[in-house]
């Protein structure tokens, strides 16, 4: 993965000068991977009814919209908002539903679309929660995963990038609600969080 040198300032052109220490995954690399993931998921669903994508707000919103548009088959879209991080850089482990699905998923093939699997606590909770609603199948597509940070075993069929255990921002991912608007994934400077 390309990283900016000590002189590069990836946030400068986006209104965040001096706040990011490097680009971890650039825009082109993200978009190429999303096309691959979308093709893989579509191939496994081709003979079925359209998969119901469940976008996990807020972090996954950018990934979900690019992913759905990269899929060569139709999909339907639902949103669920959960939060376990608040303003911290590690999960509290307590997942709260801030917004639930708008429809019944009984008998549907659902695909949870996540921006990142870090401790795995959010996804593990979500998989169990959705399983109680009797869907036909639950798949997961996650753009990022931190393999060394996992605290629970989670079954994830499609993963974009395995990344180091560092706090990342951009492309939907925030710190204190900032940086979601960056078009790439970057490493936040250590001086920006406590
Ligand atoms: O594997 P975990 O350690 O549980 O972390 C992953 C979750 O944390 C983030 O959500 P967050 O709770 O920050 O809410 P947000 O998406 O609104 O930023 C991220 O979007 C994932 O949903
Ligand atoms: O590294 C991260 N960055 C932003 N949000 C997150 N939620 C879990 N891990 C992260
Ligand atoms: Mg967050």
From TrEMBL:
Q: List the taxonomic lineage.
A: Bacteria, Bacillati, Actinomycetota, Actinomycetes, Nakamurellales
Q: Which UniProt keywords apply?
A: Cytoplasm, Glycosyltransferase, Magnesium, Metal-binding, Nucleotide-binding, Purine salvage, Transferase
Similarity comment: family membership: Belongs to the purine/pyrimidine phosphoribosyltransferase family.
What Gene Ontology terms describe what this protein does at the molecular function level?
guanine phosphoribosyltransferase activity; hypoxanthine phosphoribosyltransferase activity; magnesium ion binding; nucleotide binding
- Per UniProt, residues of the Phosphoribosyltransferase domain are 29-175
Q: Which Gene3D superfamilies match?
A: 3.40.50.2020
For the keyword Plastid, the answer is no
Kindly list the places in or outside the cell where this protein is found, as annotated in its UniProt entry. Cytoplasm
Q: Which reaction does it catalyse?
A: IMP + diphosphate = hypoxanthine + 5-phospho-alpha-D-ribose 1-diphosphate; GMP + diphosphate = guanine + 5-phospho-alpha-D-ribose 1-diphosphate
The family database entries (Pfam families) matched by this protein are listed as: Pribosyltran
Name recorded for this polypeptide: Hypoxanthine phosphoribosyltransferase
**Alphabetical list of SUPFAM superfamilies matching this protein:** PRTase-like (SSF53271)
Q: Reply yes or no: does the keyword Glycosyltransferase apply.
A: yes
> What organism is recorded for this protein?
Nakamurella flava
E.C. designation(s): 2.4.2.8
Q: In which pathway does it act?
A: Purine metabolism; GMP biosynthesis via salvage pathway; GMP from guanine: step 1/1; Purine metabolism; IMP biosynthesis via salvage pathway; IMP from hypoxanthine: step 1/1
């Amino acid at each position: 993965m390309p990283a900016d040198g000590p002189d590069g300032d990836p946030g400068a052109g986006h209104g965040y000068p001096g706040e990011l220490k490097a680009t971890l995954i650039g825009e082109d690399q993200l978009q190429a991977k999303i096309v691959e993931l979308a093709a893989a998921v579509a191939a496994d669903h081709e003979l079925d009814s359209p998969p119901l994508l469940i976008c996990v707000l807020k972090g996954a919103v950018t990934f979900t919209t690019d992913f759905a548009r990269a899929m060569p088959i139709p999909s339907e879209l639902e949103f669920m908002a959960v939060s376990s991080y608040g303003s911290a850089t590690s999960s509290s482990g307590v997942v709260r539903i801030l917004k639930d699905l708008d429809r019944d998923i009984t008998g549907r093939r659902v695909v949870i679309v996540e921006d990142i699997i870090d401790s795995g606590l959010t996804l593990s909770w979500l998989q169990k929660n959705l399983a109680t609603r009797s869907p036909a199948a639950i798949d997961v597509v996650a753009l990022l995963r931190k393999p060394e940070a996992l605290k629970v075993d989670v079954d994830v069929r499609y993963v974009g990038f395995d990344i180091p255990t560092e706090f990342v921002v951009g492309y939907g991912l925030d710190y204190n609600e900032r940086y979601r608007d960056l078009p790439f994934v970057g490493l936040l400077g250590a001086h920006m969080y406590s």
